[in-house]
């Protein structure tokens, strides 16, 4: 739209597009608050409704907003539920067996709680490892620490702090060595 054009001069299609763009943002936020039906959840995540139903009935993941409570009742999944379901699908796609995925999620929830978006997971063949606060935790085998991650930035900071008390002595030694070369 040019500096002299108004939205009324552009016609109803432009106004409708502007309203549609605003509505889309509002609808997305409303959907997050109200949740997602089982059918929509399955489509969004990329799984079948049968898989979703099986995972709910076997307690892999239960809908956190509204669970089925008899014939005709509907499950409502939250945004976090969708995130967990998408993660489950990714693990299965990577070749992790469903029973191992169950163990992964039990251990993952134990380490990061409900905020799995904050987790960093490494999938390597048949292993699933959580990078958590400087350590690696095997999420399949009882959630035990397997390695420590060494941050080179942390090593550098520690070395600089260790050098600080000796800095004056090192400076004097460097001045003496330089004077010997000159003289």
From TrEMBL:
Keywords: DNA-binding. Residues 42-107 form the HTH merR-type domain. It comes from the Bacteria. InterPro entries: DNA-bd_dom_put_sf, MerR-type_HTH_dom, MerR_fam. Residues 1-22 are annotated as: Disordered. GO terms for molecular function: DNA binding; DNA-binding transcription factor activity. It holds the Pfam family MerR_1. This is Putative MerR family transcriptional regulator.
């Amino acid at each position: 739209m040019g500096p002299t054009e108004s939205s009324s001069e552009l016609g109803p299609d432009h106004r409708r597009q502007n309203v549609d763009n605003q509505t889309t943002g509002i609808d997305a936020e409303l959907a997050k608050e109200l949740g997602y039906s089982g059918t929509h959840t399955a489509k969004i995540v990329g799984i079948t409704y049968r898989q979703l139903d099986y995972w709910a009935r076997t307690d892999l993941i239960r809908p956190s907003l509204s669970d089925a409570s008899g014939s005709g009742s509907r499950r409502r999944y939250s945004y976090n539920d969708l995130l967990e379901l998408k993660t489950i699908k990714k693990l299965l796609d990577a070749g992790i067996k469903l029973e191992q995925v169950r163990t992964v999620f039990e251990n993952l929830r134990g380490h990061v709680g409900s905020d799995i978006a904050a987790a960093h997971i490494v999938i390597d063949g048949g292993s699933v490892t959580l990078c958590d606060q400087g350590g690696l935790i095997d999420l399949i085998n009882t959630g035990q620490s397997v390695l420590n991650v060494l941050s080179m930035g942390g090593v550098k900071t520690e070395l600089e702090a260790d050098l600080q008390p000796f800095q004056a002595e090192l400076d004097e030694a460097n001045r003496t060595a330089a004077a010997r070369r000159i003289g």
